[in-house]
Amino acid sequence: MNVSEAVKTRRSVRAFTDQPVDLETIRRVMDTARWAPSGCNYQPWEATILSGKVLADFRKTLADAAMEQAEYDWAAPGNEDAYKQRLDNVSKGMFGAMGIARDDTAGRMQAMERNRTSFDSPALMLCYFPRLMKEAQWSDTGMWLQTVALLLREEGLDSCFQEYMALFANTIRDFLGLDQHRYMFFCGMAIGYRDQDDPVNNFERERVPLDDQIKFLGWE
Ligand SMILES: Cc1cc2nc3c(=O)[nH]c(=O)nc-3n(C[C@H](O)[C@H](O)[C@H](O)COP(=O)(O)O)c2cc1C
Description:
The protein is α+β, with helices and mostly antiparallel strands. It has a single domain, classed as NADH Oxidase (3-Layer(aba) Sandwich). The protein contains eight helices and four strands; from the N terminus they run H-H-E-H-H-H-E-H-E-H-E-H. It has helices at residues 3-9, 23-33, 52-64, 81-97, 105-112, 135-154, 169-176, 210-213, and strands spanning 46-51, 123-130, 158-162, 183-192. It is globular, with a radius of gyration of 18 Å. The structure holds flavin mononucleotide. Flavin mononucleotide (FMN) binds at residues 11-12, 14, 90, 115, 160-164, 187, 205.
């Protein structure tokens, strides 16, 4: 698989097969992902990857956990129409694929709750970093996460990032034994093999046309 194929075949996968992810494969991915860039080479990202009984125990803990105040604000751009439209479009595609009607608020809430079990993925990465990291290091962590997602594709694996998990940041830090004061929790990443047939993995996604976002100057 070349890079373009990895980029184009990656999508947020929200239904997985039962096939487990083996440790050797996931270690290979994470080992290569260390070569992601970061400003000042700080390499701010840290993570724990759960599988098997520990993941089952984590899901039991999360099932009983109360939702917290989000660890950070991811919703703010939705206050501008253009961004709200993009969110509406992806919601329409995703809930539509799940057969949930637009006005079925309870159904949508129930579908969102599937985040709590990370769509029953066989593996789950929990990503965090020290709170002293600022915007630049959040961005570095994003680059690393995308690097992980693309390397997973190379191994035939799929993933779904989960900022939803930041609604349980305290519970997660407690579960992992992380210092509440030192660590900011960023996101989860469901990892596993894609269920090819599930409609939730097959709805059409939208992207902004190239020339609406990128300018090319001095090429004539
Ligand atoms: C940092 C980050 C957090 C995300 N959090 C969630 C989440 O909590 N739940 C979810 O279902 N999708 C989540 N997504 C997936 C986005 O909805 C998805 O990337 C976007 O709709 C584009 O679709 P695609 O990934 O299939 O290309 C997240 C994506 C990113 C990059």
